Amino acid sequence: MDSLMPDKMAELAEDAGIKKAGRSFSKTFVLAILAGAFISFGAIFATTVTAEMILTPGFTKLIGGVAFSLGLILVIIGGAELFTGNNLIVMAWANKKIHTSQLLRNWTIVFLGNFVGAISMAILMLFSLQYSSGTGSIGLKALNIAEVKCSLGFEQAIILGILCNVLVCLAVWLCFSATTVSGKVLAILFPITAFVASGFEHSIANMYFIPIALFIKGFASSAFWQGIASSPDQFESLTWGNFMMKNMIPVTIGNIIGGAVLVGLVYWFVYLKGNARRS
User: What CA–CA distance (Å, rounded) separates 68 from 60?
Assistant: First the structure.
């Protein structure tokens, strides 16, 4: 058998939650920084390959989703701590294998570490000037992506966050079934492509997508703005305040509901509730 059935997957998910909750602060934080950087690589890849793509909007989003899948592939295969995926730790918590304090400790450390990794990548990409290469289309794409994200309504952002992390946590859940690298990659590819192509909102990805656009808006040269025939004033919604209030806070709330409740607790109820396989 090259795959496991859901009851065994649930046991592996519980074991993973126990291990993650018991890991030291320093190791958890370093692995979280890596995950923030890995997700940023997926965001960079997706932005770059779709910047000048002349295809139907749906197919362009499909290609962007395939490219973005790189991020979770690096997290799962390479090993890192991603806040959205770690919402599945609730399976161990609900089965009383870890305490509430351990759950919240992990989520807090990982969320902050993801932010450090993602914002560091945004700073590196700003100084690389990659966004201004060619006609500046990559930078313009980044600005347009972030402008949309900073224009969402609060409730809309929550719902988009819920839908996103249902798919992200399903991708992580499916990886517990796979016993090979190729199997894990395929398990990741379709759910992640689906969430990106559908326009759902991922809090950790947005820690890169929006800051890099804010940095471009604030620090790009006049030559860049001339090259894209635009100006900072045309991106009115792109502010640090909107980043937090219209995106990061509601999207994070939605991600927790989607991942922890609609995936983690559902599978706990079906496969782990009342399971006394060990003390």
Answer: 12
Distance CA 29, CA 83 (A): 11
Contact 43, 205 (CB under 8 A): yes
Residue 279 is predicted with a pLDDT of: 42
CATH assignment at residue 36: 1.20.1080.10
Identify whether 276 is part of a domain: no
* pTM more than 0.90: yes
Query: For residue 3, which phi and psi values (nearest 5 degrees)?
Result: -150, 160
Whether residue 17 contacts residue 259, with contact meaning beta carbons closer than 8 Å, is answered with no
Inter-helix orientation angle 203-219/249-256, to 10°: 160
Within-domain flag for 278: no
Q: Is 250 inside a domain boundary?
A: yes
Cβ-proximal residues to 278 (8 Å cutoff; 6+ apart), any chain: none
- What are the pLDDT digits (tens) for 126-162? 999 999 987 899 999 999 999 999 999 999 999 999 9
Range of the domain at 176: 6-271
Q: Which residues contact 39 (CB under 8 A, 6 or more apart)?
A: 71, 72, 75, 82, 114, 117, 118, 202, 204, 205, 207, 208
Listed in sequence order, the residues at least 6 apart from 225 whose beta carbon sits closer than 8 Å to its beta carbon are 231, 232
Q: Which of 43, 81, 69 is nearest to 210 (CA)?
A: 43
| Domain count within the chain | 1
Residue 279 lies in a domain: no
Report the candidate in 148, 150, 125, 137 with the shortest Cα–Cα distance to residue 230: 137
Q: Which residues of 94-117 are buried (b: 16+ CB within 10 A; e: fewer)?
A: bbebbeeebbeebbebbbebbbbb
pLDDT digits (tens, 9 = 90+) for 34-68: 999 999 999 999 999 999 888 899 999 999 999 99
